[in-house]
UniProtKB/TrEMBL annotation:
One of its GO terms (molecular function) is hydrolase activity, hydrolyzing O-glycosyl compounds. It comes from Croceivirga radicis. GO terms for biological process: carbohydrate metabolic process. It comes from the Bacteria. This is Glycoside hydrolase. Residues 8-133 form the Trehalase-like N-terminal domain. Keywords: Hydrolase.
């Protein structure tokens, strides 16, 4: 089956996708949202790639080195074998901070025999909008564009540069390397230095994993997802990306193709909450600082998303010269959704603030700024919660009173009240409690549909929506409440398609959705589990896990029929929800072990 069989490497500054055959088909330097240097994934002919080519006698396998983000692709014909170890350097510097240069290292390790390979090195800078020309210099190969925009990338290698650039056969007699860098190196790298970079990066990821809790069940799934989420965090500002790619389609041949290399407040806040639960508090604190930096004016409304360097204007344009993934046009960069109003972001953000305040209280370095943001959020919600918006799924046309948005407005006030109590700001509580009650009563009155026997997508509609499953997760309603149970069963009947969930089934701006939104299935699994249908939930969880790619990675969507991965990749949303489900099952398993042990005594 044709699938998104890619691994991701990264260093919290940028990332690259490596195919199961060892081809680098997507990378942007120097940062996540920079223009691409390789984009074969978006146009097989024009996009550009860095391929390792062997004859048909070689079997190719791929896996991550255990507990790291070093991707190992093994080529073997039985007699001759070598490993391609792909990574982006990241490690602690002696003087503090991190070494995370805009560069990619491909370490070629000889395993046995005398393997033969050739290189197809074809960078196409600036999204391949113009010709990229490569030239051999004394110490490196330089590739550049200069017709419309000047850009360069440098390749250092231990192999003969002429043979590399010409695609001639290379016979491996010893280890070797390729180092792609956005900046010319002051010191020419050699094999020993590159090997040291690999070992330092390996130790960094091993140490990071050592600070992550170990779980009785699904630990490998939790850890791989956590490592992936870490790669989607941008160290410079604390932003969290929704995904590492742009324009991978939700459905092949259709137009639901978006740029996800930005920081959605909703997605990022959910990621940070999970990472915090896994013990990685520094990510949470950096993200909170990112939020603080975005709020210079007390009455300024949050956008739903920002650039990773805090950009507020994310103009969307199309790259018409690229054919798109499997011919799915258009290819977009930028994202017009930044102009939308989505009232749910305030509740999701307040939930993260509340969690961090609960953990650290007034010990938080920025607690005064957070209290200011809390008051600002309450002010904004009070003024706007009764207005319609675009909703979590970013409908681009009609605004509606979406149930999820209303519930998260309630969450914003509920968490603000709790934060006020922790900070001892009791003078705010009476007014805020009145507001919380008003929003809660409004939801119960207008979101429940007696005919459907469920909380519906928006006020006055008959449509179901998977997002309302989060009512329980955010504490609006108990999992055993008859209304919630009835809602879950209604969603099961209407939105479940062979164990995969639609987000919704009503027509949107682009017609009827034809693929499953992966996070929705995980939300459904959590809801079943919380209701007490634990066996059904875990069986469904195992089924969904089987749809990951060969490395345990998920994109945004899964095709209902073929089960192929679709949408931007890897998707933070999908992996945070996977972690939440896996932790639920693992904790239940641990509790059962304790009960069984006590029974045996």
């Amino acid at each position: 089956m044709d699938n998104l069989n890619y691994g991701i490497i990264g260093n919290c500054r940028s990332a690259a996708l490596i195919s199961v055959k060892g081809s680098m088909d997507w990378s942007c330097l120097p940062e996540f949202d920079s223009s691409s240097i390789f984009a074969k994934i978006l146009d097989e002919k024009k996009g550009g790639s860095f391929e390792i080519l062997v004859d048909d006698s070689y079997e190719i396998k791929q896996a991550y080195e255990n507990r790291t983000n070093i991707l190992v692709t093994t080529f073997s014909n039985g007699k001759d074998a070598f490993e391609l170890r792909d990574f982006m350097p990241r490690y602690h510097k002696m003087e503090g901070g991190y070494h995370a240069q805009p560069e990619i290292i491909r370490y070629v390790k000889l395993v046995s025999g005398s393997p033969k390979l050739s290189i197809h090195y074809n960078p196409r800078l600036e999204y391949a909008k113009e010709a990229t020309n490569s030239f051999i210099k004394k110490d490196f190969i330089v590739s550049l564009t200069d017709e419309q925009q000047y850009d360069t990338v440098f390749l250092y290698t231990s192999f003969e540069k002429e043979k590399v650039l010409n695609g001639d056969t290379l016979t491996l007699k010893d280890d070797g390397f390729f180092l792609i860098t956005y900046n010319e190196k002051l010191l020419v790298p050699n094999l020993e230095k590159v090997y040291l970079e690999m070992e330092r990066t390996k130790i960094y990821w091993l140490d990071w994993c050592d600070r992550t809790p170990t779980y009785k069940k699904y630990n490998d799934k939790i850890l791989r997802s956590a490592l992936t989420l870490k790669m989607l965090t941008y160290d410079k500002t604390g932003a969290v990306l929704a995904a590492a790619t742009t324009s991978l389609p939700e459905t092949i041949g259709e137009v639901r193709n978006w740029d996800y290399r930005f920081c959605w407040i909703r997605d990022a806040s959910m990621v940070i909450k999970v990472m915090s639960e896994l013990g990685h508090k520094n990510s949470a604190l950096r993200y909170l600082q990112f939020i603080i930096d975005l709020m210079p004016d007390k009455d300024e409304k949050f956008q739903i998303m920002y650039g990773i360097n805090k950009e507020k204007t994310l103009t969307e344009i199309t790259l018409d010269h690229l054919d798109g993934y499997k011919g799915s046009k258009p290819v977009r960069i930028g994202n017009a959704a930044y102009q939308q109003t989505q009232n749910d972001i305030y509740g999701i953000l307040m939930d993260v603030i509340h969690e961090q305040v609960c953990k650290f209280g007034t010990d938080l370095e920025n607690c005064e700024e957070l209290w200011g943001i809390t008051k600002g959020i309450v002010w904004i919600v009070d003024k706007h919660w009764q207005e319609p918006d675009k909703g979590i799924w970013e409908f681009r046309e009609e605004d509606r009173h979406f149930t999820f948005s209303k519930v998260l407005c309630w969450v914003a006030i509920d968490r603000a009240i709790k934060v006020a109590e922790i900070f001892g700001k009791h003078h705010k509580l009476e007014m805020w409690k009145d507001l919380e009650k008003a929003i809660r009563e409004d939801i119960h009155k207008n979101a429940w549909n007696d005919e459907v026997k469920a909380f519906v997508q928006s006020y006055g509609s008959n449509y179901l929506d998977a997002s309302v499953l989060l009512m329980e997760s955010y504490g609006f309603i108990d999992a055993k409440d008859p209304k919630f149970v009835s809602t879950v069963h209604a969603i099961d009947k209407d939105l479940n398609n062979d164990g995969l969930l639609y987000r919704y089934k009503n027509q949107d701006d682009f017609g009827l959705p034809s693929s499953s939104f992966t996070i929705c299935t995980f939300w459904f699994i959590k809801s079943l589990f919380k209701m007490g249908e634990e066996e059904k939930a875990e069986a469904l969880f195992k089924q969904v896990l089987s749809y990951s790619n060969h490395l345990g990675l998920f994109s945004e969507d899964i095709d209902f029929k073929s089960k192929r991965l679709l949408g931007n990749f890897p998707q933070a949303y999908s992996h945070l929800a996977l972690i939440e489900c896996a932790i639920l099952f693992s904790k239940k398993h641990s509790e059962q072990e304790i009960i069984d042990h006590i029974t045996d005594l």
